[in-house]
Design a protein that fits this description.
Blueprint (H helix, E strand, L loop, with lengths): L32 H25 L7 H21 L7 H8 L14 H16 L5 H27 L2 H12 L2 H7 L5 H18 L7 H11 L8 H20 L9 H14 L2 H18 L7 H13 L6 E3 L2 E3 L8 H9 L2 H16 L7 H13 L19 H26 L8 H23 L13 H7 L15 H7 L6 E4 L7 H6 L7 E3 L3 H7 L2 E5 L5 H11 L6 E5 L2 E8 L4
Parallel strand pairs: 3-4, 3-5
Antiparallel strand pairs: 1-2, 5-7, 6-7
Helix pairs in contact: 1-5, 1-6, 2-3, 2-4, 4-5, 5-6, 5-8, 5-17, 6-17, 6-18, 8-9, 9-12, 10-11, 10-16, 15-17, 15-18, 16-17, 17-18, 22-23
């Protein structure tokens, strides 16, 4: 149920077709039923295409070491919930502790919330174990792919309501064609799903400002975001600032109606009440339903919730600083450069998308004064996501994956900017003496389509080694390497070396491989029949190298010492194979001389 309110109408109101570029236009989301159905069909098609692209492309992406942990624990979480649903066991403390917790800080991966891990496990049980429709790895990765499609749909719906169909399509495509985001969506990890649930929370919050009586959606979605990754705790910073901003706007609008005889204190109290209480049910939804939802999806919190929440937060507040290369230097302890997030974002978002986003941001600034301030909300959302990384103390080892919720803001701005540029070009040509211009749609297709195509090409070029890819602004993958940007992490690049390793394996005797950073994933590669069972992991560090017949090093700056260890043990500095992307070496493979 919703209450009638002036704010319940979309911020985009109808305008003549001849309106200037950037002026509000009528939205298909508020049009006749047939038009609304068509608009929804377009959005659903874009979302399905994005999700399908992720599923197809992930087949050539290696296994991240974090995936191994999440798949193992996700399968156990899924089995526990299935056991509850089928009455195989109850909700006892021992059962929950064995599955979700334990005395150690990382027992059963209790340091990370369970929502996505549980979905990975349930998807594996259904699509691989029961139906046999997908491989073990693909089945586990399906939920992240689906949520990537949901992110594209949310971007489309947001822009459709506020701007129009052309902007919505272009923004959705710009968000889909983000090389690093698409890469992270191909893994059974939390980062891309967190981006989606962050965006879903912001979107649900904006819609809840329409005055509905029970805005339960925003609290529930935020709870699911909390149940996915701890970074969702930053969301109240953006939502709170925006809530106050909208409250100030509403209070100022009501100021002329204030009793002129009221005292300054009375007027101040009335102003504060409007600012704080204008949509108080939204605050209640966040404050109550958010934690309740987190509690409902995380059985480990059912036992001593205060203590376990404190342990969860303490783990991440004191998180270890892993090695990470940035601008030619290996960083593994703060203080980090304040500009890490800024420069990395500039180098990992397609240049055409960035250019269009700058134009779109200018259009947003020029179009102020909407009651719900949606563009301010997008800006605050981005700031809350990326802001902590300007402090110099926040871990940077995962780079863009840690502040991925900033990307929808960039994509939405890019969609608006690209279409605005097309319409501005038509208007400029129409104003020239002796020039008659028709077909704004053709111009939008040409200008905005070129920007989308540029982003799409960069996304295609980045596959399947998107961690080595950098944008044209950095000079591509070679430019990123020359600038000293990180080339790989998590061991995912091993996938491209597996066929060469398999060809070296002895058919009837063990062949030992120093698998380096891919060691945790080796069992999964064997179960997927990507390497023969006779190709065995030799172990770690010098002992593993000395035992091995073949050795692999995945290139990160702090891994250089592994090359030296192999050279000394193997008696050669010459690799027999080097995996490259755009000419940049990312994995070197060595063979012992007597193999």
């Amino acid at each position: 149920m919703t209450e009638a309110s002036p704010d319940a109408m979309p911020d985009a109101v109808g305008a003549p077709a001849s309106a200037a570029p950037g002026a509000a236009r009528s939205s298909p989301a508020a049009g006749p039923p047939a038009r609304r159905r068509t608009a929804w069909l377009v959005g659903a098609t874009l979302a399905l295409a994005a999700a399908a692209a992720v599923v197809i492309l992930q087949r050539d992406v290696g296994i991240a070491r974090d995936e191994v942990v999440y798949l193992q624990n996700g399968a156990r979480y899924a089995d526990w919930w299935i056991g509850v649903a089928t009455l195989q066991h109850g909700l006892g403390r021992d059962s929950i502790t064995r599955t979700f917790g334990g005395p150690g800080a990382t027992d059963n991966n209790r340091e990370h919330p369970p929502v996505m891990k549980t979905l990975f496990g349930l998807s594996g049980r259904l699509f691989h174990d029961k139906l046999g429709l997908a491989s073990e790895l693909t089945a586990a990765r399906l939920p992240a792919a689906v949520l990537y499609g949901v992110a594209v749909l949310l971007v489309y719906l947001w822009v459709l309501e506020l701007w129009g169909l052309a902007e919505a399509i272009v923004a959705a495509l710009m968000c889909a064609a983000l090389p690093r985001a698409m890469f992270h969506a191909q893994l059974a990890c939390f980062d891309a799903p967190t981006m989606t649930l962050w965006l879903a929370t912001v979107y649900a919050y904006l819609r809840a400002l329409d005055g509905r009586r029970w805005p339960w959606q925003v609290g529930v979605v935020w709870g699911l975001a909390l149940g996915t990754k701890h970074t969702a705790l930053l969301l109240p910073l953006a939502l709170g600032a925006h809530y106050v901003l909208v409250g100030v706007i509403r209070a100022r609008e009501r100021a002329p109606g204030t009793d002129p005889g009221a005292s300054r204190r009375a007027r101040g109290v009335a102003f504060a009440r409007t600012v704080i209480g204008h949509r108080w049910r939204v605050l209640v939804s966040l404050a109550v339903l958010g934690p309740v939802t987190l509690l409902a999806v995380w059985p480990w919190l059912w036992i001593d919730p205060v203590h376990h929440v404190r342990d969860w937060l303490a783990f991440h507040l004191g998180h270890v600083h892993y090695n990470y290369e940035y601008l030619g230097r290996n960083w593994n302890a703060p203080p980090f450069p304040w500009h890490v997030a800024l420069v990395t974002t500039l180098f990992t978002v397609p240049t055409a998308t960035l250019a269009a986003a700058v134009v779109g941001a200018g259009v947003w600034i020029a179009r102020r004064g909407q009651p719900r301030a949606p563009h301010a909300l997008l800006a605050l959302s981005a700031a809350a996501s990326i802001g902590p990384f300007f402090l110099g103390s926040t871990p940077i080892f995962g780079a863009e994956k840690h502040w991925m919720p900033v990307l929808p803001t960039i994509g939405i701005a890019a969609g608006v900017g690209a279409v605005w540029a097309a319409r501005a070009a038509v208007s400029s040509l129409a104003g020239m003496r002796g020039v008659a211009v028709r077909g704004t749609g053709v111009a939008i297709t040409g200008v905005a389509g070129a920007m989308v195509l540029a982003a799409g090409i960069e996304t295609e070029v980045a596959e399947s080694y998107a961690l080595t890819w950098y944008s044209a602004l950095a000079g591509g993958a070679p430019g990123g390497a020359d600038l000293g940007m990180n080339r790989q992490f998590w061991g995912v690049a091993m996938r491209g070396v597996l066929p060469v390793l398999a060809a070296e394996a002895r058919p009837d005797a063990p062949t030992y491989v120093y698998t380096h950073d891919a060691s945790p994933a080796w069992g999964l590669y064997q179960r997927a029949d990507l390497v023969p069972r006779t190709l065995l992991d030799a172990g770690w560090e010098q002992a593993g190298i000395d035992r091995s017949d073949l050795a692999v090093v995945i290139h990160e700056r702090h891994f250089n010492r592994h090359d030296y260890l192999i050279w000394r043990s193997y008696g050669t500095v010459q690799p027999v194979f080097v995996l490259r992307t755009a000419g940049v070496p990312i994995v070197s493979m060595y063979r012992r001389r007597n193999h």
